[in-house]
Amino acid sequence: MNASIISVGQELLLGDTINTNASWIGQFLSQQGIHCTEVVTIGDDSVQITAALDRLFAENDVIIMTGGLGPTHDDITKVTLLRYFKDTLVRHQPTFDHVEGIFQRRGMPFSVSNHAQADVLSRSDVLFNKTGTAPGMWIPHNGRLLAVLPGGPREMKYLMENEVMPRLKVNNGDSAAYRAHYFQLTGIGESNLSDLLIGDTSTLTSESVTLAYLPHTHGITMRISSFAKDHEIALRQAEPLIDHIRQTAGEFVYSELRNDTIQATAVRMLTDAGKTVATAESCSGGQLAHFITNVPGSSAIFPGGIVAYSNALKTKLLGVPEEVLATYGAVSEPVALQMAKAAAEITGADFGLSSTGVAGPDGGTPEKPVGTVWIGFWSASKHFALKAQLYPDRLINKERSAVIALDILRRELAGIQNLPYGLNRKDSAK
Amino acid sequence: MNASIISVGQELLLGDTINTNASWIGQFLSQQGIHCTEVVTIGDDSVQITAALDRLFAENDVIIMTGGLGPTHDDITKVTLLRYFKDTLVRHQPTFDHVEGIFQRRGMPFSVSNHAQADVLSRSDVLFNKTGTAPGMWIPHNGRLLAVLPGGPREMKYLMENEVMPRLKVNNGDSAAYRAHYFQLTGIGESNLSDLLIGDTSTLTSESVTLAYLPHTHGITMRISSFAKDHEIALRQAEPLIDHIRQTAGEFVYSELRNDTIQATAVRMLTDAGKTVATAESCSGGQLAHFITNVPGSSAIFPGGIVAYSNALKTKLLGVPEEVLATYGAVSEPVALQMAKAAAEITGADFGLSSTGVAGPDGGTPEKPVGTVWIGFWSASKHFALKAQLYPDRLINKERSAVIALDILRRELAGIQNLPYGLNRKDSAK
Predict the structure, then answer these.
(1) What is the Cα–Cα distance from A348 to A364, expressed in whole angstroms?
(2) Last residue of a domain, which of A255, A275, A302?
(3) What interface predicted TM-score (ipTM) does this complex get?
């Protein structure tokens, strides 16, 4: 089954809003074995909407259209569809009552412009939106299917999951099966990974089994896509390639789950091991603690952390001696070592992680240019720091130092000797 | 001048990567008065690329195409363009030398598959990519213009700014002038803002002057778009609407800059006032410190913060009495008050901000459901906390508590009496 997405909204073209809806829908459809062939993003423009519907109906079984269903004057999707299908509007009473209730609970007048939210095309099957005020519409047309949804992400996702998918499943009888397998890697660059580790995969890939490298700020995601007549075959034909990646790049793989992160992995591993970690951050400025606490259940493994942004605070809260700061500077091995140790000692955690570096854009020197970071690690049996040279970009430097710290922890918990990026540890005398 | 964007890449359709490039390019083009009419996102597919080029060349002066220029087998953009233009490849020696240098510096073999990165269409004007390995290409075609760029965001932006824009400016002689004015607001919901404060704007807007509400996780951005024959008129005709918004919603406006954030605003205001802030976080888990330290120059106004995730750490580091925790629980007014005070006292900062709440998804109770947060504020003259009921979503709760804390600080620095969302302060007896 083929699908296309029409994203309606001037704000998307002007770049004020990023089209995360299309990405989510594409991902969601692929998980159901529905192949998304194209995303068209256009303004709130009747002519463009009509042209896109004509073109995409010719080539796709399904069209998912989002946006332009609100109550303001620039929301013209409904009126365009009325003309396209030569249809009329009818009031959907359950939606009317629901929207009226929303306004009442907010203590706000339920104005006439909001009444019209409950009007739908008479030929449509209403997709009741209990999370918001704009209902979706399901419109079969000449053997094709059109789902019209509001643009607000939460409402769109709710309607896709609860109203659109059941209807699509009914229609998706004999589509080809699609299976994807993911590898999440960090601690290595894409070139080295593909050229030096994974190598030539031409005997393991084909038209039905493909491999894609998806680099991102946290590392690299590798996606193996497998298309076949049924799910069993799709799974089985991808196994040789999956095994090859495990064999050659296993050390760098922190997860084989689709949407996993290094922080979720670290939290899982700590939970399984019954251990805890504390953080002492300077250049990452809270990002490391933030990543850890993004993970539900992290309170079981994270008592807390300190963001010692000033040198005075490094001394006062983390016991970094003033002489050490004066002699070596904040961005140095002894400071990273002491910060990691103090984080663990103060909190009683099993592990301490620290960061100290030059995030930029200011603060660089010839000896310590922007992007110079020291990451410290402390445990009862190991105490070391490593130095990395990151980027001329503050936000990337913050994020990367946090990711490297989490990867060091993962490798410790997994018993992996090597450090990320082939870096060497500077072990303190224990 | 009209433009369209073609985003090439299967990962975009599968939703593994979000199409941030198209948003950035759309924004960038609009700043130059170039009107982006459509974004087409397709797979690494020759047939689709060819069809998109045919269709969009007919309707647009400019096409910006990104993606598919890498060295792996699924990068087919160049080969497709060779056929489309019936052209041949030539080696661009400066690019070859540049890429060879990159590989040498990384200590990596410069393999033959990477040599081909330096090959370009003979009819193209090479857009030299000094930030990466894939050069862009500038291809005039029947009075239209095609810019072909790599998909990596940093490289794409570098080439757009340094290579594409100068060439577009040369061609953009008599395009209509476009001016946009932005308002960044927080502390109020979209309905209340538009219905109760801004109200009816029909006498202030027209086809040439439009108003859009762009809600997002940090609040609401309002964009006024003004199209006219020249820049002076475009600026002037939008003034009545701009003034109206300042009059009616001024309290909630923290900035009139396009890409501003509440944290950058807070850092600017603190810097101007010569003041400092420290943080004590529980439920926001480091996000507040992270937001502040994202802003260059924040080290001048932020000595640091404590993430006291466990109750033990709230007592040990922030002096929250055990009896208070036992009696009222961590998510309570006295705890928020003490945390904010301790943050400032420990660090010597002028202001202390705190957060304590139930981020979720677990931990909610009937009295304190998921989303219950207390935000604390301390200064030499004011000490209070406010309670908000946020969302059933952990990440949104973390982010919103941090944003509310920063907005409280902004209002204090701006001398605004009211608190966000019409909330009431619970003042501690001073």
Answers:
(1) 34
(2) A255
(3) 0.73
